From TrEMBL:
Domain Cyclophilin-like: 59-162
Full protein name: Cyclophilin-like domain-containing protein
Residues spanning the signal sequence: 1-21
Keywords assigned by UniProt, alphabetized: Signal
InterPro entries associated with the record: Cyclophilin-like, Cyclophilin-like_dom_sf
Gene source species: Megamonas funiformis
Pfam families reported in the protein's UniProt record: Cyclophil_like2
Length: 169
């Protein structure tokens, strides 16, 4: 019995070492294919990140604000849900909020910095916030972008608002 066990152990060890020693030599075709894939991926990534995403919020009485989104996963999730018709609500004394239909992915999304005109996502409640006055930093607030046009009327916005993408300039 010991001889069989010893023989099986030796065979297993031999096959294991042989498998570890096997190396695939790169061929010219494999190297070229890998280089092409890498170049294509890099080009696509850089063109996507260089693309500025601007959204426009329009009220029923034609008041508009424009917001430039950052390139975070959460901002991209919001952008991909547009166009939307939402109910913009007052909350507290410094912000307007709305609820997108789907939760946003906050992985790798920066925390919101306290600044008037910030568009942020409050993860625990799943609402998007537009700040029109000072606010305090919060670990559950993720920055999506900032108002680039119409910051002075954010406090006046309310009711049904259409949010849509704007063509790249």
């Amino acid at each position: 019995m010991k001889k069989i066990f010893l023989l099986l152990s030796l065979l297993l060890m031999t096959f294991s070492l042989t498998a570890c020693n096997a190396q695939v030599e790169p061929t010219q075709d494999n190297t070229t294919a890998n280089t092409n894939v890498k170049t294509t991926t890099e080009t696509t990534s850089s063109s996507t990140s260089a693309q500025t995403k601007i959204i426009k919020l329009t009220t029923t009485n034609n008041q508009t604000i424009e917001i430039e989104l950052n390139n975070s996963p959460a901002a991209n999730d919001l952008y991909n849900q547009l166009p939307l018709s939402i109910d913009l609500e007052d909350y507290s004394t410094n912000e307007k909020i709305f609820y997108p239909p789907n939760k946003l992915n906050t992985e790798s999304t920066p925390k919101a910095t306290p600044k008037i005109g910030t568009l942020a996502y409050y993860e625990p409640w799943g609402d998007v916030v537009i700040f029109y006055d000072d606010f305090h930093a919060n670990n559950d607030l993720y920055e999506l972008g900032h108002v680039i046009s119409g910051e002075d009327i954010v406090s006046e916005l309310s009711g049904i608002v259409t949010i849509e993408t704007m063509p790249n300039q």
